[in-house]
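agent: user wants the full assembly modeled, not chains individually. Plan: 1) parse entity lines 2) check alphabet per entity 3) run joint structure prediction 4) return tokens. Steps 1-2 passed, two entities, 774 residues total. Proceeding.
--- entities ---
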Amino acid sequence: MENFMFQAPTKIIFGKGTENQTGEEIKKFGKKVLLHYGEGSIKKYGIYDRVMGSLKKEGLEVIELGGVQPNPRLSMVRKGVSLCRENNIDFILAVGGGSAIDSAKAIGIGVPYSGDVWDFYAKKAKIRAALPIGAVLTIPAAGSEVSCDSVITNEDGWYKRSADNEAIFPRFSILNPELTFTLSAKQTAIGIADIMSHVFERYFTQVQNVELTDRLAEATLKTLINNAGIVLENPNDYNARAEIMWCGSIAHNNMLGTGRINDWASHGIEHELSAIYDIAHGEGLSIVFPAWMKYVYKSNLPRFAQYANRVWNIDIDFNNIEKTAIDGINRLESFFREIGLATRLSDLDITDDRFDEMANKAVENGPIGFFKKLDKNDILNIFKIAL
Amino acid sequence: MENFMFQAPTKIIFGKGTENQTGEEIKKFGKKVLLHYGEGSIKKYGIYDRVMGSLKKEGLEVIELGGVQPNPRLSMVRKGVSLCRENNIDFILAVGGGSAIDSAKAIGIGVPYSGDVWDFYAKKAKIRAALPIGAVLTIPAAGSEVSCDSVITNEDGWYKRSADNEAIFPRFSILNPELTFTLSAKQTAIGIADIMSHVFERYFTQVQNVELTDRLAEATLKTLINNAGIVLENPNDYNARAEIMWCGSIAHNNMLGTGRINDWASHGIEHELSAIYDIAHGEGLSIVFPAWMKYVYKSNLPRFAQYANRVWNIDIDFNNIEKTAIDGINRLESFFREIGLATRLSDLDITDDRFDEMANKAVENGPIGFFKKLDKNDILNIFKIAL
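--- prediction returned ---
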């Protein structure tokens, strides 16, 4: 086990009707709120009205900035920074999924910084201060509601990069599973793939003697798999929606990464894909992860056999551990297909045209990954497996 | 699943040599430190010297208060409060196990309060402020290093009562598994029983649809069981010590209680036992829990069968679920015996003399427990089973 630091300071307020507490929570931190959200579905389903009602009830002043896109853009962040400065905003509330929250975090660090906010993502500046942010989560997927990361896409060159600092942990995150009833089957599946990927990035490690976190990760994966079928059958099943939503936060508050060296190569590869093709991050991962697994599993057969056995209940073939490992990988690919996700680039009509460009960008700061260190050639091979 | 709030703000610094970071962490909060510890073992094993070295290196001023006893006493807390006031202490560092940390928390809330600190434990006053505290943990057991609870024993009547408030979360807790190598086999086993009990109090619930937390709890119990044998065989096994230490915090930061109504009757019963007989809390629990389980299991057979199957790998007898449930309970009692703990009151020469007094005290504020609500008569029955 490796030495580690762990902290989960975000106050999670979980359950039915909890969005009505938003104003009360914000009041502890500020008075003038930037309400930041996506493309209007929160208005369609009444979430906007309830949140706004809660803010007004507490006498908070509200400036709105809607229109955050999936794979949130730097131009929107810059717009938000200006708006906050002009209006002396002292709290940013994101209502939405990871895109709205990541965009809110980016605005939060941009406001007190004299340079350009992209500096933090280009690793040219260190985050030292941020406006406090909070979240009302409507899509369980990214885990941004409990993390101190933000991922932003720079349209100038389509770079998708991340910044992290403990100053951007949301002060609170409100998680009401009812708000996820209206997610389509596709959006739900994409979220599940994203959550599973956050577990995989931590689970597939070469660090030995990490039993507790192995078992906690396996518990999270099994719960996701069991509840995926239930919500796809019945989108209004509160308990199954609640399990998936809580899995999304547990998967990414980094408890599952404690004592381990995490991998994150698949995320790096997927970021290049979604930056260029603007596909959903979760569906990019349902393509990249099976391919990555097929390419790297031999680096640690016992770990892949354990995964097959404990997560998918596949009996271990003690005379052929490799077969067990491969069965586990294939089972994941079938699962992604069963829940309606692409598992090959060709499913999304992506060809090998830009493999070279993407592989170059993925390794521009050197090889990526820990489970198996990947250079440009490795990434090209993974893209080929994924075709 | 029930609505819930969850927050784990304590910064955990985990691993080899981490006690050398103590001074650096304290410096963020204060300059004048009360160093609070137990009966001298930290001096014997060099922990005191390393921690003191780290404090001195950062130029911190230190006042000492050693001598905290197991089942920490109110008289010591009052002494600490006076000492802090006389010396304008602005940070309290506990070095030790749950007793030192609980005592530090009590002192922390006593200092800014004009009345007597017992008021908080007697529920006559609400905690509004506290001196910041931190911990260097030497005994994985109580989970106090990540909790916002404190349990103190009032010698006047031997009442053992708790107080809780988010103001008493430790600001940081330093967990170096190496510091636990010198724990005796008995101390180690007592700690394991204490940790398992924290999981049980949350696991045995009547709330349905709590799959993720069920599985996370089962993961924690399995890890504890697997590593108990390893450390009792080889006390210097770093990885097994690390697993147990991290289990101790995960078991009690309340993640495992999210979405569930917890029980806590067994803790209530045990507190009466250890308040009167001054036995180790963990060994009180290794006696009370099997007896409690035998008395209540019929209230929810499926849950006890699930526990037997998933935690102890006992095959479910589908024609006799009750037998499966009983097998699981018996397996726990055998496990406690295997690791050298008492499982009956008679093992510690405790007779039925004071059953009536203890049962009365346990229910003085009404029936206890949620899995099955227990009145005085129920508690007497549990004591009889435990004889």
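agent: reporting back. The two ends of chain A are 37 Å apart (CA to CA). The CA atoms of residues 216 and 256 of chain A lie 7 Å apart.
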